[in-house]
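Convert to structure. Protein one:
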Amino acid sequence: MQPLAERLRPQTLDDYIGQQHLVGEGAVIRRMIDARRIASFILWGPPGVGKTTLANIIAKTLDVPFFTLSAVTSGVKEVREVIEKAKMHSGLFATKGNPILFIDEIHRFSKSQQDSLLGAVEKGIITLIGATTENPSFEVIRPLLSRCQVYVLESLGKDDLLKLLDNALTKDVFLKNKKIELKETGALLRQSGGDARKLLNIFELTIQAAEAAGQTDIVITDELVLKSIQQNPLAYDKDGEMHYDIISAFIKSIRGSDPDAAIYYLARMIEGGEDPLFIARRLVISASEDIGLANPNALLLANACFDAVSKIGMPEGRIPLAEATVYLATSPKSNSSYLAIDAALQYVKQTGNLPVPLHIRNAPTKLMAELGYHDGYKYAHDFPDHFVEQQFLPDEATGARFWHAQPHTPSEAKLYERMLKCWKERYKNEE
């Protein structure tokens, strides 16, 4: 018998749950499907949020040839074989659209494997749909990435997960005739972590455990769910737990300045076979997001760690990973840069493309100079302390503040004191 998650896999877009920012009325993927013109794209999101399901629905709705490859088991040879098959189908199905090639876990493809896709995507022999749990900017080669849009899928929310459970009880051929009462859902929702497959696996596991205990009228409670999970710890997607729950605990331990906890979770990931470059990338992010200007050397060390692990691999790579982990966990913390860019992005979204002041624009042509470009610009190095006060923000943004110092650490306190000296009124009310 198929697992519950597979039995409930949606077959149409109307049955698809979640990701309304992509498939809701007027959303980008919905528009492409309605227009029957699918461009190549990559779906980036955590496990169990509908990446594979969405690709299958698109192919079924458009009625075009659909080929699938898994990056775990396929190489260049398999890619070329699929492209040759797609060429044969292209002529037969030209009026319906290009054949679709779906590649699961595309982040695991090597550079040569990704290179082998370029020509077919460029010529329109195939429409590529990739799925990845990793940031495509790191894992997909630039030429292929430039030929694909990237769409971000989100973990499913509470309402989506509850709808899945309702579907399981009312639509599944094996469950709808059983006496099952969903009394409590807290444990199911917490343990799923927004992963539909994990939710349904745990739900099915709980029902099976109750039936094994001789229950015919099953009442789902948090206690029953947790007891079922403890009895069968490997039955509900351990890889998902390892990959997301443990990395979350790892980063939070670094942020919380607990080197012992951070090293413990690092060991959990190494022992579990986690990709060491995945860990190293998260260290680079943490160095900027959580340590930042409180200790700028943290980013240098994290980058050096990433480089070292790339060169030496495992098991020796555990040593620079441990060094960077301890250093980041014991460093002073500041997220002022992280907060500054998020505030600036929000401001830009609200205000649009405000004009750059003329005096700080370049004037490479005579016409630009005549129009006042660069006129009145003051070269900072010509002034005492290499600073002179002048306007840099657009007129409409004058006085806007994005970076707010966190002067609890000596290095950032020095930066704040310099800004206070330079800009006086703007920074004197800094809390």
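Protein two, convert as well:
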Amino acid sequence: MGRVADLSTLLIYGAIAALVVAMIAFAIDASGKIHRSDSAVRRPAANAGIMVTWLATVFLLLGVITRGIAQRHVPWSNMYEFTVLFTLMGLVIYLVLNARGDLRAIGLFVTIPAVSLLGIAVVLLYSAADGVAPILDHYWLVIHVPLAIGAVAVSSVAAALATLQLAKDYTSASSSRLGKLLRPLPTPAALERLAHRFTAVGFVLWTFTLIAGAIWANSAWTRAWGWDAKEVWTLVIWVIYAAYLHARATRGWDGKRSAYLILLGFLAILINLFVVNYFFDSKHSYALTTHALQVLMS
């Protein structure tokens, strides 16, 4: 299975290369929009960006499939596989939304974080395809981890929309390059409503992630909750998003305040993924790799 694993890695590198090309195409399109006033003009660079993003997504999907064949299980048992999977899901969400409504204008803001995450995955988080850790060889893996991947992917989209909402809000009356670049986007209110929908879905997924994790922990460690660092931070994320939904529904917290809460929740997610996993004592440390620890310590 070594050749299949190598093929998976090559496909993921191919996805990164394609995303870089797409990012350049979206940047060319954005530069052109800054200097032209005719919004009806054709946008070949943006169209090329979307096509290459589709190609990158196919490469990434094939990389995941071949990784699964090499691992003999669905590839979501360590941080490398987790990061690749939720990046793939984020790209799929963007492309589906673009097919329903023109979102080419935010292509640059999608491809930059996607390239960054995949770069982190292959450079820092890479793990050889050597099977599943014994503690993960459990049917709850198929329930708990996909919920967590979906929660991270959906919350990532919500955070991107909240960021664009704030940027659009602060530059709506500006003649700066950023203001001109963001002008084709929907209004801040429309972006906020869309971010709210994604956050509500993400909150449901986080809720079931917590529940499934507690059930699995009770089976694996004979306790449903042990104040493990990973458990605590997942609870923190859930509380932040619960506070956001409560404040928006009962206190009318929309606009900028809601965007800040969404970004606070996503910051907690990033801390949970890339700080807690590496720098806190946790029973979830089996998700790490020797390679990652060597890179961190070098």
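Confidence is low (pLDDT under 50) at residues 34-40, 289-298. The chain is about 75% helix and 0% strand.
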